[in-house]
Amino acid sequence: MKNLLKLSAILVVSTLVMTSCAKKERSDVTGWKLNDTKWGGFEKLDYEGQITGPNLVLIEGGTFTMGLTGQDVTYEWNNNPRRVTVSSFYMDETEVSNHNYREYLYWLDRVFGETYPEVFLDALPDTLVWREELGFNEPLVETYFRHPAYDDYPVVGVSWVQSNDFARWRTDRVNEMLLIEKGILNPNPEQKDEDNFNTESYLVGQYEGNVRKNLKDFKTGGERRVRFEDGIMLPEYRLPTEAEWEYAALALQGNQASEKDELITDRRIYPWNGNTVRYQRRDKNQGNILANFKRSRGDYMGMAGKLNDNACPTAPVRAYLPNDFGLYNMAGNVNEWVLDLYRPLTSQTLSDSENHDWNPYRGNRFRQKVLDENGVPVEKDSLGRLRYRYVEDDEAANRDNYKVGQPFNYLDGDKQSQAYYDYGVHTLISDKARVYKGGSWADRAYWLSPGTRRFLDEDKSSRTIGFRCAMIRVGAPSGNDEVSGHNYKTKRKRRDDRRFK
Fold first, then answer.
1. Which of 47, 135, 271, 427 is buried deepest, with most CB atoms within 10 A?
2. Which UniProt keywords are given for this protein, alphabetically ordered (predicted)?
3. In the beta sheet, which residues pair with residue 255?
């Protein structure tokens, strides 16, 4: 009898809990029930926050001094120090490897190879970057990218344009994987030509896929496809901006005096502390080289029996100690493309203006989807992507926050700046010049400093330049589990809602 009473009590409590959980949440402004077909079906998610995509690390944003804080030994004055703030974002833990890039090529060949072989050919890295008039590097032309011995080494010979194409492809593959993992789509290796999963095409209904089970539609009571508002799919992978890359490389959080203040104990020349490229703490790693670089003329790796950086030319993408954000090879190994267009006076523009000290970036080309007369995106292109057009200057002329569609030369090359870049005559700077940073296996230690910068045309490549990807952070800057700083949060007060019953 006693056990029967206990069981009855448990059932009553369970029923009350289930009833409480089943209670529909109401709108803050109308009192209407949410996620209820009878009440119109307007949805509100119990969203737990942005997940961390494959190989990404959350970089908590903040303020820092961007630019060269040491001696400008080249006397170019193209990166004067200025105070800026970078929003939280995600960065690849490593440089993109040969094996990563070969997976990309494999997909392109499988999907487009028969009909559009040029898509695959255009994505191939330039392996001839290893050739040199007075050097025996011909074996690397054939082996570095293709041989499994170099699988985990950084891909090189990839242009800025090719790097961006890889990032766009990666966005679609990761989002397709997330839909498969959620049980919404089935894996579909039979995708061909324009009938392939593209995030934007899927979201506007121009790709169906091999559907397993769609989401419940509270509006109709049936099913519906995933929307971006569902928070299942991630924002796009892309190259990091120069400010993001430099901030992530410095990783000054490692020198924070305490968790109770905003002070750092020391600034940094490199992605680690000290003024030397050797490990300085008194432990088993003391004296070890911290990056893969050219120590002096003719010295790329040290001498037999005591190789200093143990790499020639490159090292695996997870070689050496990571910085305080957990990122590998933010100095040395290979230089890395960033998103920015190169202009030497950009730092001066930022220093003179308080309007461009948050997420600074030069290289915007504002664009918008091509729509039909009903405001619906027109049919996707032959590769399965939505069609875009660039914003014209006259469309932006009456706006307050921007006035031109492609502000490449804003305050550095336009009439207002009185600067002029005569490409091929007085300068190699053009609207195709893109920044790369970080130093490489063939560079001296000076270029390992995150504040240094150089440029190369976006359609050219080098044996010393690779890349890694980044992604924006949406929502709380500190992550999903905690809120740092003095962002006071209070629980919503409970009110008498008996009138809504």
1. 271
2. Lipoprotein, Signal
3. none
- Within 8 A by CB and 6+ apart from 205, the residues are 225
Answer whether 141's CB lies under 8 Å from 463's CB.
no
- Contact predicate 48/32, CB 8 Å: no
Count of beta carbons in the 10 Å neighbourhood of residue 93? 18
Q: Where are the domains of the chain?
A: 364-407
Distance separating alpha carbons of residues 172 and 53, to the nearest angstrom: 12
Q: Dig out the tokens for 204 from the structure.
A: 């506007």
Q: Could you tell me the two tokens for 326?
A: 């957990």
Query: How do 388-390 and 470-472 pair as beta strands?
Result: unpaired
pLDDT at residue 501, rounded to an integer: 46
In whole angstroms, what is the distance from residue 105 CA to residue 166 CA? 9
Give the C-alpha separation, 25 to 43, whole Å: 10
What is the chain's mean pLDDT, rounded? 89
Q: How many other CB atoms sit within 10 Å of the CB of residue 290?
A: 22
Q: Are strands 335-341 and 465-466 parallel, antiparallel or unpaired?
A: parallel
Enumerate the H helices of 133-283 as residue ranges.
138-143, 160-181, 199-203, 242-250
* Extended strands (E) in 301-418: 302-303, 306-307, 335-341, 367-369, 388-390
Cα(436)–Cα(339) distance, rounded to whole angstroms?
Answer: 9
Q: Which of 102-116, 344-358, 465-479 has the lowest mean pLDDT?
A: 344-358
Q: What are phi and psi of 472, to 5 degrees?
A: -70, 155
pLDDT in tens, 59-118: 999 999 999 877 778 778 788 889 999 999 999 999 999 999 999 999 999 999 999 999
Instruction: Please give the pLDDT value at position 490.
Output: 55
Which pairs count as long-range contacts for 303-307, CB under 8 Å and 24+ apart, including other chains? none
Single-letter amino acid code for the residue at 492: R
Under a CB-based contact definition with an 8 Å cutoff, are residues 461 and 43 in contact?
no
Which of 398, 471, 500, 454 is CA-nearest to residue 74? 454
Structure confidence at residue 12 (pLDDT):
44
Q: What is the pTM of this model?
A: 0.91
Residue 489: which pLDDT band, with cuts at 50, 70 and 90?
low
Q: Alpha-carbon Rg of the chain, whole angstroms?
A: 27
User: What is the spatial distance between Cα 465 and Cα 445, in angstroms, rounded to a whole number?
Assistant: 16
